[in-house]
């Protein structure tokens, strides 16, 4: 099992460790609910060093990224970040990811899901063959910390030479954090304001400890993968393998906003265009469980007297205090307010399609 | 850590003998494994259970786990406090977080359960 460079720090902090995507990772420290609420109301610090970092570099790097992804990477200036996907020719997901524009048109960083890093790297390398680019998997060299929550900026600012107040959402810059060279981006996977901090340094625990020291008096907590999952689901951010996969198209996942048909050709474009024209047969929707109980992944879903699918993501959401989830439903059941049923062991619970995201932070 | 006056099962329930009755809950180890508990499915009084039959279930943010009866018996009461404050199981698993009270059918079944020292040894084995 792989370990991140922060492994010892988590164990010292008393984290419960589990295997995730081949890494020994902290699932919780104090408890999922406390950690979740800390991120919503104060701040939380995550080790997400398991994430994959793939660099595409060369004179045709932009053309290559454009071909591999449905969003328009041509809109990115250096220092900008974009949410997008790696798509199959069928318009389904190899993965979802962030693209960082390091230099136009010749250097891009792809940040991908830990569980998919090797698959993605092989995919990108194969599809990039016709382009004049190098594709390098730099995942093992990178550590990544995420500081998320309304107090993230005030906790991080004293530790960095970057002017965080000037940094907009979905942008990044290079600077020092706790004296260590980092890439700092205003991104995250929680639905809160915050930063993701990447470093190639061998001692990222220096950054971790400096942030904890700075933030603890303000209520900062270390946060594990358990709360990372409940936070991202409240904000309706996708989890590959649960909500999206190589069996679901980008349009079915209700991510039309990352599909830019005008930008030129890309993998899956023809299928997606056809699907858009003919209309979707099913779509990913958010639901809340009306009866007492919690829907969890793979629980059967019933509508119109028959099983129509199964739950993708489902959990108790600590901030909105409801049992919520995501499910692909036949298009005739996807209107807001539509009721259906979820099989929970020997019972059937009533559930209802509700607007998403389940939680949206108030913009200042 | 684990009180000497309780009996324990391999599924991480505890049992406290009180005369002809038994109070049953889940152990500190079990509540730590589950994490924050948000919902407890309780049985109705009068329900007759065989040893190792599911009494109900305990649901945390991240998982759900059945609770098994350590011995055969009839449910006399369920801890109704848990409907409002399920996290009593996290806070006080061997006390206020009790789940059911049973009328024991056959006390000899207690011989199948572990004492605290044996349970602690059993847990050590699980952690390696």
Question: Could you say what the CATH topology of the domain at 6-51 and 142-235 in chain A is called?
Answer: Gyrase A, domain 2
In sequence order, what are the helices and strands of chain B, one letter per element? Answer: EEEHEEEEEHHEH
Share of helix of chain A, binned: 10-25%
Specify Rg of chain A, calculated over alpha carbons: 20 Å
Task: Write down the overall geometry of chain B.
Answer: globular
Report the structural category of chain B: alpha+beta
Assembly annotation: heterodimer
Biggest sheet character of chain B: 6 strands, antiparallel
| Overall form of chain A | globular
Q: Write down the domain tally of chain B.
A: 1
Question: CATH superfamily membership of the domain at 6-51 and 142-235 in chain A, which one?
Answer: Probable tRNA modification gtpase trme, domain 1
Task: Walk me through what this model shows.
The complex is a heterodimer of chains A (364) and B (128). Chain A has eight helices and 20 strands. By secondary structure, chain A is of the alpha+beta class. Among the domains of chain A are: 6-51 and 142-235, 2-Layer Sandwich (Gyrase A, domain 2); 52-138, Aminomethyltransferase beta-barrel domains (Alpha-Beta Plaits). A six-stranded mixed β-sheet of chain A has the order 11-12-13-10-4-14. In chain A, strands 15-18-17-16-19-20 form a six-stranded antiparallel barrel. The model of chain A has no long low-confidence stretch (mean pLDDT 97). The model of chain B has no long low-confidence stretch (mean pLDDT 95). Chain B has one domain (6-122): OB fold (Dihydrolipoamide Acetyltransferase, E2P) (Beta Barrel). Helices cover 21% and strands 35% of the residues of chain B. Chain B has helices at residues 28-34, 81-84, 88-91, 116-127, and strands at residues 6-8, 13-18, 21-26, 37-41, 48-49, 54-60, 64-68, 73-78, 100-104. Chain B has a six-stranded antiparallel β-sheet with strand order 1-2-3-9-8-5. The chains are: A alpha+beta (364), B alpha+beta (128). At the A-B interface, helix 2 and helix 7 of A face strand 6 of B. Chain A: InterPro entries: GcvT, GcvT/YgfZ/DmdA, GcvT/YgfZ_C, GcvT_bac, GcvT_C, GCVT_N, TrmE/GcvT-like.
């Amino acid at each position: 099992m792989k370990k991140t460079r922060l492994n010892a720090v988590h164990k010292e902090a008393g984290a419960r460790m589990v295997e995730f995507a081949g890494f020994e990772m902290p699932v919780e420290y104090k408890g999922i609910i406390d950690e979740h609420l800390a991120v919503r109301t104060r701040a939380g610090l995550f080790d997400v060093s398991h994430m994959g970092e793939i660099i595409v570099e060369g004179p045709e790097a932009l053309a290559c990224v454009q071909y591999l992804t449905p969003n328009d990477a041509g809109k990115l200036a250096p220092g900008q970040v974009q949410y997008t996907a790696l798509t199959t020719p069928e318009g389904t997901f190899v993965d979802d990811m962030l693209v960082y524009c390091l230099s136009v048109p010749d250097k891009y960083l792809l940040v991908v899901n830990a569980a998919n890093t090797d698959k993605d790297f092989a995919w990108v390398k194969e599809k990039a063959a016709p382009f004049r680019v190098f594709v390098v998997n730099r995942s093992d060299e990178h550590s990544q910390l995420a500081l998320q929550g309304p107090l993230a900026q005030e906790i991080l600012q004293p530790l960095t030479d970057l002017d965080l107040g000037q940094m907009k959402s979905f942008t990044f810059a290079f600077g020092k954090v706790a004296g260590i060279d980092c890439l700092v981006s205003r991104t995250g996977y929680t639905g809160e304001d915050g930063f993701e901090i990447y470093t190639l340094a061998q001692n990222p625990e220096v950054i971790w400890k400096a942030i904890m020291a700075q933030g603890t008096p303000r209520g900062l907590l270390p946060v594990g993968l358990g709360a990372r999952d409940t936070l991202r689901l409240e904000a309706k951010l996708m989890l590959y393998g649960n909500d999206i996969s190589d069996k679901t198209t980008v349009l079915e996942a209700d991510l039309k906003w990352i599909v830019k048909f005008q930008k030129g050709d890309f993998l899956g474009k023809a299928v997606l265009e056809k699907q858009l024209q003919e209309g979707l047969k099913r779509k990913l929707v958010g639901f809340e469980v009306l009866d007492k109980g919690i829907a969890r992944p793979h629980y059967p879903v019933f509508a119109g007297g028959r099983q129509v699918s199964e739950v993708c993501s489902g959990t108790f959401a600590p901030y909105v205090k409801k049992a919520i989830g995501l499910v692909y439903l036949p298009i005739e059941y996807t209107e807001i307010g539509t009721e259906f049923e979820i099989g929970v062991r020997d019972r059937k619970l009533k559930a209802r399609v509700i607007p998403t995201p389940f939680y949206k932070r108030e913009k200042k | 850590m684990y009180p000497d006056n309780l009996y324990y099962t391999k599924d991480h329930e505890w049992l406290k003998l009180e005369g002809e009755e038994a109070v049953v809950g889940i152990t500190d180890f079990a509540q730590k494994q589950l994490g924050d508990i948000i919902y407890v499915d309780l049985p109705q009084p009068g329900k007759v259970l065989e040893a190792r039959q599911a009494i109900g279930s305990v649901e945390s943010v991240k998982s759900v786990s059945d609770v098994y009866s350590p011995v055969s018996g009839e449910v006399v009461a369920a801890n109704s406090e848990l409907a409002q404050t399920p996290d009593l199981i996290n806070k006080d698993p061997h006390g206020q977080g009790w789940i059911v009270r049973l009328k024991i059918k056959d006390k000899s079944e207690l011989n199948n359960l572990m004492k605290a020292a044996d349970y602690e040894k059993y847990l050590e084995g699980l952690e390696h």
